[in-house]
Design goal:
The protein is of the alpha/beta class. Helix content is 31%, strand content 25%. The protein has one domain (3-213): Vaccinia Virus protein VP39 (Rossmann fold). It has 7 helices and 9 strands; from the N terminus they run αααββαβαβαββαβββ. The model has no long low-confidence stretch (mean pLDDT 94). GO terms for molecular function: protein-L-isoaspartate (D-aspartate) O-methyltransferase activity.
């Protein structure tokens, strides 16, 4: 695809994100997402982070298959979860579920450092290649069990989980810095909710249900190499 067509597709994606945001403004508490988040959504080349067979669908406001039974989330959900984290340029961010690296790239444009954990080694390798090819230098990735987080680099100012555990993983809450935020889907496949978790300065946590969602389950246990 030529650059002009990609630019038009990306602009249409931003329009769809804005429309969907306005439709759920009562649930999310705002009619517009942070302009900085929208700018980053317009800059990160989403088509690079999907398999070649699906590049024509990259900027549609829908999930796209990325292999191993996983998908890249629809752009609205990527933008909303990023907005809810309220990332500062000095923040250290933990991401659970690298996939092919699109959400990772979005986070890296806003944060000081991103640490991303992926259980499936094949996806992690593909993500690393894509991120390196685009020159994202403030991202570290590893293959591992997302339930365990990345304790060597904790505590984190922000944590994002892009697959749904049945309940909030204690290790991730422990690795969230006082004053920090975590965004994640929680619940069984047919009854998930996107949640915002906040920790106050004293370490007390509170949760807010934002929207009903549907994500892949967050799998627990040893890493797997599926391709």
């Amino acid at each position: 695809m030529d650059d002009g067509k990609l630019a038009r597709m990306r602009q249409w994606m931003l329009t769809e994100i804005a429309v969907e945001t306005a439709c759920v403004r009562e649930q999310i508490g705002k009619a517009q997402l942070d302009p900085q988040v929208m700018d980053v959504m317009g800059e990160v080349p989403r088509h690079v982070f999907v398999p070649a067979a699906f590049q024509a669908e990259a900027y549609l406001n829908q999930p796209v298959p990325i292999g191993c039974g996983k998908t890249i989330s629809q752009p609205f959900i990527v933008a909303l979860m990023t907005d809810l984290l309220d990332i500062h340029s000095t923040d250290s961010v933990l991401e659970i579920g690298t996939g092919l690296g699109y959400q990772t790239a979005v986070l890296s444009r806003l944060a000081r450092q991103v640490y991303s954990v992926e259980r499936l080694a094949g996806l992690a390798r593909e993500a690393r290649q894509r991120l390196d090819s685009l020159g994202y230098a403030n991202i570290q990735t590893r293959v591992g069990d997302g339930y365990l987080g990345w304790p060597e680099h904790a505590p984190f100012d922000r944590i994002m989980v892009t697959a749904a555990p049945p309940q909030l993983p204690p290790a991730l809450l422990d690795q969230l810095r006082n004053g920090g935020r975590m965004v994640l889907p929680v619940g069984p496949h047919d009854h998930q909710a996107l949640m915002l978790v906040r920790k106050d300065a004293q370490g007390q946590s509170s949760t807010r249900v934002v929207l009903p969602v549907r994500f892949s389950a967050l799998e627990e246990g040893e890493a797997a190499d599926l391709f």
